[in-house]
Amino acid sequence: MKIAGLILAGGQSRRLGAHKFQTLLGDRPLLDHVAAGLAPQVGAMAVNLPPDCTHEKITVLHEPEGKREGPLAGVLLGLEWAQSVGADTLVTMPVDVPFSPHDIVAQLLTHSKEQEPVCAVEGGRRHGLCALWPVVCLPAFTIAYTDGNIRTVNRMLDLLQVQEVAFEAIGNEQFFNINTTVDIEKARQILLRTKDLE
To answer: What are phi and psi of 187, to 5 degrees?
Structure first.
């Protein structure tokens, strides 16, 4: 099985006031934290960035100029890219979730079925973009997105009959989501605690 990984970083980050993928956490941008965790778990990796942004080391997927239609547009781009590189599975991770489990891909795979996506759940909360998408679901995804005008992650997952994988809540840190400068400071404290345990 060839697994491709996509980091979703195409949002406008209005609450943070800057592109999330460039925002520093410790001495590294958020993108580097997520890429370092995801890269060992996948065979190929790309990042969905805003149209005016590039990256030197990671394959970049851009939405068409003038279209900023949210994270599902990024997932669709990712599925098309995964298919083009011969992968049969796409794993997506948001750039603002830097502490995801180091074995999240393996755990999602244990619940994978032929056509149904799999996503993480922690403490009863669905993390719909921390997910595994079989490439064979691309036709159904495309029809729902294009003809059905589905734009929310949860609606798409429900339509595709998502399987959910429960992860143990560890201080609400594994799927901690960064949206504001206050969140960045909280993430720095998590990072410091993590380093202290190494």
So the answer is: -65, -35
Q: Which residues pair with 3 in a beta bridge?
A: 89
- Predicted TM-score of the model (pTM): 0.94
The domain spans of the chain are: 3-197
Written as six digits, the tokens of 2 are: 């060839």
Rounded Cα distance between 3 and 88, Å, is: 6
What phi and psi values does residue 8 have, to the nearest 5 degrees? -90, 110
Say if strands 125-134 and 89-94 run parallel, antiparallel, or are unpaired. antiparallel
pLDDT tens for 125-182 read 999 999 999 999 999 999 999 999 999 999 999 999 999 999 988 777 899 999 998 9
10 Å CB burial of residue 121 (0-12, 13-18, 19+) is: middle
CATH architecture of the domain 3-197 equals Alpha-Beta Complex (3.90)
User: What is the spatial distance between Cα 159 and Cα 6, in angstroms, rounded to a whole number?
Assistant: 21
Q: What separation in angstroms does the CA of 123 have from each of 29, 63, 101, 173, 176? A: 28, 33, 15, 11, 12
The half-sphere exposure of 41 on its side-chain side, counting CA atoms within 13 A, is 24
